[in-house]
Design brief:
single chain
């Protein structure tokens, strides 16, 4: 028998470059296997994971654990473990330490392949470098987000079940007023209670301690009325901030705070990842971002530098402080800097004039996009 060779017309089409001949690993989108592999690599670093637990979970556990223990042993000497003040303090602590922990995790995720000598081996497999970089983002966030959520959940549970009843009055600048006033009602109440006004520290309102200082000449009713009328907007801002900060947050307010905390640590991770990929140095990246969080941001958030206010507002911590929910921002009446109205109805914790909402959102989105782009660009152009 003879065999018939297939003709060219019967043969299938030749593979074209860029279609069947292109391996699937060249896609710029990271695969699920690539993400889970990177997540496992991070979790295997015991020192790094212990650092995350110590910075994110341990402070809340110790803070409330000791308060619950002391109250259980001697409830008369030690108050309930939870309160609005303790809730705010624990949440702000989680935000500060969480950003540092996230920055350290991002720096590690962006530099370990270089320090371990594995970057060249990853590149020669044919995988897209962009996919290798993007896989680190969900891999790291999958570790950070549950940790922060667990710490915040403990804070919410203790505050909800171990807090005293909400007060029926509001204290601001040494004045105690009933709750749930609008601006007009507060103005009327202040004008009817001039004795409290004179004994308080209301800014711009003359009185025994407020406008004249201790031992100064007594203010006339006309001066007090004029001071209240001219400063009622700032006084009501302090009143409303104190009203929120002195009461146990409602469920919707707790949800806003939880989302804000997750955004805070998410930004810390993305910036740490991008900066670490750019420098290739884990230690340098971590030190710079710690200095940004605990030195540069507090300094610029509280002190206005002449002719540099727009430059100060470009710092991510300034925008996040303005976005900080009202229950975490210090009330203006207690010495904090009341900021302007922000998303979600809260008030920022800034001591400088707040930026417009669109500018605040632009700064936050800009930091996420720019540092992600810088990190990806450096990985794509790095010599293997």
């Amino acid at each position: 028998m003879t065999t018939t060779e297939p003709s060219l017309s019967q043969a299938g089409p030749a593979p074209q470059p860029g279609r069947r001949g292109t391996p699937r690993t060249s896609s710029w989108l990271p695969t699920w296997d690539l993400i889970t592999t990177k997540n496992l690599e991070i979790r295997k670093r015991r020192g790094l994971m212990i650092t995350l637990v110590v910075l994110i979970l341990v402070p809340t556990i110790l803070f409330y654990g000791l308060r619950l223990l002391f109250h259980a042993i001697d409830p008369h000497a030690y108050a309930l473990a939870g309160s609005p003040v303790q809730f705010s303090g624990a949440a702000n602590l989680t935000a500060e330490f969480g950003f540092i922990a996230a920055a350290a995790l991002g720096a590690a995720a962006g530099t370990t392949d270089l320090s371990d000598g594995m970057f060249r081996h990853l590149v020669i497999t044919g995988r897209s470098r962009l996919a290798l970089y993007l896989a680190r983002i969900p891999a790291g966030l999958a570790i950070l987000i549950p940790m922060v959520a667990l710490a915040f959940l403990m804070n919410c549970l203790v505050t909800s079940y171990q807090s005293p009843p909400n007060p029926t009055s509001v204290s601001f600048y040494g004045v105690t007023a009933p709750q749930h006033f609008d601006q007009a009602e507060l103005q009327t109440w202040l004008l009817q209670n001039t004795q409290q006004v004179q004994n308080g520290f209301l800014p711009g309102v003359p009185g025994g301690q407020g406008g004249q200082g201790p031992g100064g000449p007594a203010a006339t009713p006309a001066q007090i009325r004029s001071g209240i009328d001219h400063n009622i907007a700032s006084l009501y801002s302090a009143y409303s901030s104190a009203e929120i900060s002195e009461a146990t947050p409602a469920i919707n307010e707790m949800a806003k705070i939880g989302l804000w905390l997750e955004l805070e640590v998410g930004i810390g991770f993305v910036v740490g990842l991008g900066f670490g990929s750019l420098t290739g140095q884990r230690t340098t990246t971590t030190i710079v971002l710690i200095a940004l969080e605990i030195i540069v941001t507090p300094l610029f958030a509280r002190t206005q530098i002449p002719y540099f206010i727009d430059g100060q507002r470009l710092i991510i911590g300034i925008a996040m402080d303005q976005l900080r929910p009202a229950a975490l921002a210090p009330a203006a009446g207690t010495g904090g800097g009341g900021g302007g109205l922000i998303l979600g109805g809260g008030r920022g914790a800034l001591g400088i004039p707040p930026m417009p909402t669109w500018a605040m959102v632009s700064v936050i989105v800009g930091w996420i996009v720019v540092w992600s782009g810088v990190g990806a660009w450096r990985m794509i152009t790095r010599d293997a």
